[in-house]
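Appendix C: a fully annotated inverse folding record. The material below is reproduced so that readers can follow the format used throughout the book. The structure is listed first as tokens, followed by the designed sequence.
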């Protein structure tokens, strides 16, 4: 049977519902069915008025649907519906397992389209008012996760972190102490400026600025929402004042 539908891999943005592209909003309105990540805002989902909405995970450490099962559900849905939306936090093409879904769709002969979204590190930079790049100081940015999936080979994430001028670490807050220890072990300065920002773009966003040697203490800040760890000289200027700055910006939002 040939599929009638198209699967749209859509970026929902970092959290705030109004940080969604017009294209994404239009697709949600037209969607027959939406498979969404756990982190997607209720107001964003509400745009998909006529769609059946199915949560398919992904929240660190909690239950999430197996990737192969998600792939299969997307393919099945494309045989039943015209507009199938796979809605992912941030941008689908960054730590979103989009490639696995694209490969499965291609193999099954299903049409697909990717709609980009604002990734967490960009939303965090906007909140902080600190550019990821800066003339004379930071000419590259690296997006890293130290997390490896089950059965996946270990990778040398620290090498890329050490080579980068500015580094955004995703899915790392739970192992912040280990990250700091590894980086310092490998030669990073204990004084390297670090910012941890939780719930970027949402009213409850919080941040803390510290030095790499202090990153292990972040467990004490009780971050429970999604958070990025940002490292680099560009964050030096935030060091003494970040908490106040972030709360002021939150108030203004
Ligand atoms: N595709 C997503 C990333 C998915 S991985 C994107 O482009 O943003 C999930 C990780 O993203 C979380 O562990 C956290 O590190 C980061 N993240 C997602 N939303 C965030 C937010 N609002 N604030 C801070 N970090 C966030």
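Designed amino acids, in order:
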């Amino acid at each position: 049977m040939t599929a009638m539908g198209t699967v749209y891999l859509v970026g929902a943005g970092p959290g705030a519902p109004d940080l969604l592209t017009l294209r994404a909003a239009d697709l949600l309105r037209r969607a027959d069915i939406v498979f969404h990540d756990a982190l997607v805002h209720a107001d964003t989902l509400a745009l998909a008025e006529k769609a059946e909405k199915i949560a398919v995970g992904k929240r660190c450490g909690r239950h999430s649907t197996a990737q192969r099962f998600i792939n299969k559900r997307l393919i099945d849905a494309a045989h039943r519906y015209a507009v199938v939306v796979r809605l992912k936090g941030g941008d689908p093409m960054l730590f979103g397992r989009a490639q696995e879904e694209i490969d499965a769709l291609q193999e099954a002969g299903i049409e697909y389209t990717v709609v980009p979204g604002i990734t967490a590190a960009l939303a965090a930079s906007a909140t902080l008012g600190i550019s990821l790049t800066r003339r004379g100081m930071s000419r590259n940015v690296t997006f890293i996760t130290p997390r490896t999936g089950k059965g996946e080979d270990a990778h040398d994430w620290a090498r890329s972190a050490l080579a980068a001028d500015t580094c955004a670490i995703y899915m790392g807050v739970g192992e912040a102490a280990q990250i700091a220890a590894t980086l310092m072990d490998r030669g990073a300065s204990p004084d390297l400026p670090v910012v941890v920002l939780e719930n970027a773009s949402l009213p409850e966003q919080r941040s803390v600025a510290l030095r790499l040697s202090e990153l292990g203490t972040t467990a004490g800040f009780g971050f429970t929402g999604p958070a990025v760890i940002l490292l680099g000289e560009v964050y030096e200027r935030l060091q003494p004042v970040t908490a106040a700055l972030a709360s002021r910006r939150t108030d203004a939002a």
